[in-house]
Amino acid sequence: MNEGRKPYIAGNWKMNLDRAKALDLIKTIKGRLGDGNDREVAVFCPSVYLADVSAVAQGSPLGVGAQNLWFERDGAYTGELSSAMLREVGADRVLIGHSERRHVLLEPDDWMARKMRAALDGSLLPILCVGEKLEERKGNRTERVLKRQLEAGFSDIQAEEIRRVTIAYEPVWAIGTGETATPLQVGEVHKFIRRWVASRLGAEAGEAIRVLYGGSVNPGNVKALMSVPDVDGVLVGGASLKPDTFLPLIEFDR
Ligand code: PEP
After folding, report:
1. Would residue 107 show up in a list of annotated catalytic residues for this protein?
2. Checking CA distances to 62, which of 34, 38, 100, 124 falls within 20 to 30 Å?
3. For residue range 23-74, what is the model confidence (pLDDT) as tens digits?
4. Is 126:83 a contact under the CB 8 Å cutoff?
5. DSSP 8-state code for residue 5
6. Alpha carbon nearest to ligand 1 atom 8, residue
7. What phi-psi label fits residue 59: left (phi over 0), alpha (psi between -120 and 50 degrees) or beta?
8. Using CA positions, which residue lies closest to atom 7 of ligand 1?
9. What is the CB < 6 Å shell around ligand 1?
10. Which member of 40, 100, 132, 170 is catalytic?
11. Residue with the nearest Cα to atom 4 of ligand 1?
């Protein structure tokens, strides 16, 4: 963690919960949120619940985001949602390139720049998710894979936009598996990502960008992960679905 970068705790609900459970959870989180001065908290909920969830969150510093978007403004894209549509139902941010979109839905790298552009042009704050698969880590290809994903995602981003952009490092082998990357592994990769941003957009951008870690984060490991120097927050899947596992994450002790 770094004093100049506000810690960011984000929950990714994926395709979980129903409307009643989503509303219960957001009410509970809202009730326990501080003034938002020392940490940023957001949930990324299923798009069909965005209007209801964001209505509950309104008036609090809680961010509410979508889990994906399509990069065109409108047109014949059956099943897709534009940034304007997501804004209209209350989203203020969006996940781009989550590992499940890349590896289950087979989204290619070259969509990421267009999605990042569509998010920023549509006043949504993007989190670009990057991460290597197990065989890529074992084959010493982690940095090569991350560089490719970062180059694709940032190809249309300018230095002055960097404070609106967040990166989440999520090793694919640690997502939903209960296996967490060690603080040493996380520290190495986060340093690599920050250096890459500095080389691409300048030292100031490298210092300003927030880099989150995601992959089986839970109340038992959050403190160790958050104390890694280049970790500015966490992106949490499974543990974000219940108050007894998510509240300790948003209330982690600095
Ligand atoms: C995620 O969905 O981004 C994630 C990291 O999931 P989990 O915390 O369940 O590993």
Report:
1. no
2. 100
3. 999 999 999 987 878 999 999 999 999 999 999 999 999 999 999 999 999 9
4. no
5. S
6. 237
7. left
8. 237
9. 12, 14, 170, 175-176, 214-217, 235-239
10. 170
11. 237
98 assigned to active site: yes
User: Distance, CA 107 to ligand 1 centroid (Å)?
Assistant: 18
Orientation of helix 243-250 relative to helix 19-32, angle to 10°: 30
For domain 8-250, which CATH number applies: 3.40.50.970, 1.10.10.10, 3.20.20.70, 3.30.360.10?
Answer: 3.20.20.70
pLDDT of residue 254: 65
* pLDDT interval class at 2 (50, 70, 90): confident
Integer CA distances (angstroms), 178 to 1, 43, 248, in order: 23, 21, 18
Domain assignments of the chain as residue spans, ordered by start: 8-250
Is pTM beyond 0.70 here? yes
